[in-house]
Design brief:
Strand content: 25-35%
Mean pLDDT: 93
Number of helices: 3
Largest sheet: 3 strands, antiparallel
Helix content: 40-55%
Low-confidence stretches: none
């Protein structure tokens, strides 16, 4: 699967999270480009990424900072 993430880094907030099938790679790239173009035009400084993973759970595990607060990540690390 392919995942499109728009992240507001200053606020530590996920703005957009979309899923695409592997066969929709071109669509995912087009949506990412359109989103980046729009954000740039409006002067909005958000991080926009496409990630590829076997599942949403895998993306949430490998890219936790998009889904959890720093406190949650630290608490989880200390609990291990």
């Amino acid at each position: 699967m392919i995942f499109l993430i728009e992240y507001n880094r200053p606020e530590g907030r996920l703005v957009t999270f979309e899923r695409f099938k592997d066969s929709e790679r071109r669509k995912a790239e087009d949506v990412r480009l359109a989103l980046e173009w729009d954000l740039n035009r409006r002067g909005v400084n958000h991080e926009v990424v496409l990630l590829e993973a076997a599942s949403e759970a895998a993306v949430r595990r490998t890219h936790r900072r998009y889904f959890e607060t720093l406190r949650q990540i630290l608490e989880s690390a200390l609990a291990d």
